[in-house]
Amino acid sequence: GGTSYPSRVLPLNDNYQGKGDQLAACLAACRKYGVKLHVWKVNWELWWGSPEEFVDKLRAAGRLQQNEAGEERKCLCPSHPDNFKLEVESMLEVAENYQVDGLHFDYIRYPDEHYCFCDGCRERFEKHLGKELDKWPEDVLKQDEREGEHHLAWQEWRCANITRLVKAVSEKAHKIRPGIKLSAAVFDHYPHCTKTVAQDWLSWVKAGYLDFVCPMDYREDNAVFKSKVIDQLELVGDKIPLYPGIGASHPGLSPEQIALQIQLTRELGAPGFIIFNYDLGFAEGKLPELRKAVLAVEEKKIKN
């Protein structure tokens, strides 16, 4: 719902007013130090720095999400055609205007199984089915282990709404800037996430929409982390690189544990890893100790 750079399709994020083109500044710094820049996009959500007048305009046009009780969430409805167009154009203009190395999807999903049940979703789903629903939203819900008549079709339709954005951006971005890498931060529990947040990320891998994938394996328990990574590597195989995400921002994850999880990704054969995230707290609180911890793990490995 806002940018850190001049945009023809989105307003400037409230947090970047008067600060100049932050993307251009970041790109210049990356080129100076030999770092590749993959631009992070928060898809659909409008919760951080989105100008209120912009959100009000979207609300008036019926473009925000609602749960089954009719309660609003400041989030674009993925089935709305104007929202789809906005998301595509906002990502592609980055590839067009900046020599970035990649585009990264985040929040590329619904918030949970309780969204979206706006009037537009009902209308567009009924059009998809080719019939009107007798009971809304009961016909598409699963309650007390009882599935509505069209629950499975509803789940598939929600997944398709998310997948079509990944497909469109990937195909067009690769044409605009050959060699650009498309990636996504995805839920660690596949295929359960297809049912809850409509994120069928394995289908994106198989279809070639992503150049690498980053499961959010933000777990304090090393055994659980290891189990997740093993499952994900098996799912993806050699189709594309898989970089497990390590939740370094979690207060319960010490530098020593972060180092152990880095080592686990290497032992399991992952070609790399992701640290979430490099904010000021991590830089000042954990990064200095992480280097020592990584070296200690390496030394222990050599001795053994």
Description:
This protein is of the alpha/beta class. Helix content is 45%, strand content 12%. It is built from eleven helices and ten strands. The strands form four sheets. Strands 1-4-7-8 form a four-stranded parallel sheet, with helices on one face. Strand 9 (245-246), helix 9 and strand 10 form a beta-alpha-beta unit. The longest helix is centred in the middle third of the chain and has 26 residues, at 151-176. The radius of gyration is 21 Å and the shape is globular.
**How are the strands of the largest sheet arranged?**
1-4-7-8
Give a count of the beta strands, DSSP E runs of length 2 or more.
10
Share in β-strands: 5-15%
Give the proportion of residues in helices: 40-55%
Silhouette: globular
Low-confidence stretches: none
Q: Structural class of the helices, strands and pairings?
A: alpha/beta
Terminus-to-terminus distance: 51 Å
Q: Could you give a short account of the major beta sheet?
A: 4 strands, parallel
- Rg from Cα: 21 Å
